[in-house]
Amino acid sequence: xxxxxxxxxxxxxxxxxxxxxxxxxxxxxxxxxxxxxxxxxxxxxxxxxxxxxxxxxxxxxxxxxxxxxxxxxxxxxxxxxxxxxxxxxxxxxxxxxxxxxxxxxxxxxxxxxxxxxxxxxxxxxxxxxxxxxxxxxxxxxxxxxxxxxxxxxxxxxxxxxxxxxxxxxxxxxxxxxxxxxxxxxxxxxxxxxxxxxxxxxxxxxxxxxxxxxxxxxxxxxxxxxxxxxxxxxxxxxxxxxxxxxxxxxxxxxxxxxxxxxxxx
Amino acid sequence: xxxxxxxxxxxxxxxxxxxxxxxxxxxxxxxxxxxxxxxxxxxxxxxxxxxxxxxxxxxxxxxxxxxxxxxxxxxxxxxxxxxxxxxxxxxxxxxxxxxxxxxxxxxxxxxxxxxxxxxxxxxxxxxxxxxxxxxxxxxxxxxxxxxxxxxxxxxxxxxxxxxxxxxxxxxxxxxxxxxxxxxxxxxxxxxxxxxxxxxxxxxxxxxxxxxxxxxxxxxxxxxxxxxxxxxxxxxxxxxxxxxxxxxxxxxxxxxxxxxxxxxx
Lengths: 264, 264
Fold this sequence. Notes:
2 copies of one chain form a homodimer.
Chain A: E1 3-10, H1 12-15, H2 18-29, E2 35-39, H3 43-51, E3 57-59, E4 62-64, H4 67-91, E5 96-99, E6 107-111, E7 123-128, H5 130-138, E8 142-146, E9 148-150, E10 156-158, H6 161-172, E11 176-184, E12 202-204, H7 205-213, H8 221-233, E13 238-243, E14 246-254
Parallel strand pairs in A: 1-2, 1-11, 2-8, 5-8, 11-13, 12-14
Antiparallel strand pairs in A: 3-4, 6-7, 9-10, 13-14
């Protein structure tokens, strides 16, 4: 039987909020066994870009990463946020190791180019060195990833943190029984975004299809859930979407294979 | 017999100069066996601080690191410069692993407090986890350190890169025969800073004392040489000061123990 590993992902709404981040870190520390953290960025990068008068271009709600915006992402994600989290974890006795995808060649991405829109220095993970990552974990380290990767040819690339978390969870599934936990500022997937009691305890792949068709699930939740369901296909054992301040509750995802069961 | 390890240190004048950095990296790659790189910052951080209108205070020529200046240092050193170097090395097949002193608890510093001047968030290395660092090296990784450390209680600290390089070289000397190489924008230690032919092929500890007394050696070269001679006391086998574009030449330091020899 494989050892269980927890991979948690937090976004900018957690890293930007000191109290929420501290509460999350406390819960993260209480998880037994090997674990990995993937963090996004957030307002800090947007604010820094504004202070530096770097114009931000959005196409269909997605940010175009020019050279200056990439520098800001690398400074804020790989520098400021990553090292702040690492220092906090180290202070609590967790042997955190801050990483970008370039470090130890762990996550190599390909520059997004086939979409008809030039997103600039944005890359989608293509190759994860799961073996090297497992070796780092075997030394007792807790990898803390920012969502900056490289193309293997010297270029750093801005990467979606949800996608990166799913791909790393998949890559570790050969070695570990991997649980992927997306933590954000809501308690889970809710039928009514303003009513916490409408949270679904679980969603099957079929149910997700329905919710998406009826537009109950929309916006940023779609790529998160797409990534989540894809993770099952890659061997991830368990996927949960929960509030960063309450890792014990949330919406559990149920892979397609059990769609025939009673879970809906 | 121990395996030889080379630890090279480059400063901001190298990291700020793309052509010099590329030339240095080519030579760095050609060094056989395990190696470690420690890099300083440079103008990039000063420029970013200016753009963000963060006032820079100097006392006796030394920068005071307030909270905002620390953030700039972490962003530029641990983010921008560190990941740029890592991506370049990875592109050349070197399994670079970017690190701050906080990562894996490798370098713990104590906030400088006994000098009569409050330097702010500046720390002097106090404890290096040489064992963990050697484990990372044994995985085939080439550690690339920025000069940001932590105090073990959650606080990041700005650290002198020359000192950090010496301390890491000392910490690795139990496991390896360590050669410490300070690379900068001059060919070595020169009697006349404007005349490259005045470069000394070697300096003994006694000679350094003379040069320092007669003020031939001054300014930023003093802490560099102080660190270098201290490294011998900690077990480092060889210390060289050379131009970043010419690692094969330079000034070789000779430890105190051989002062009685003919080397002067």
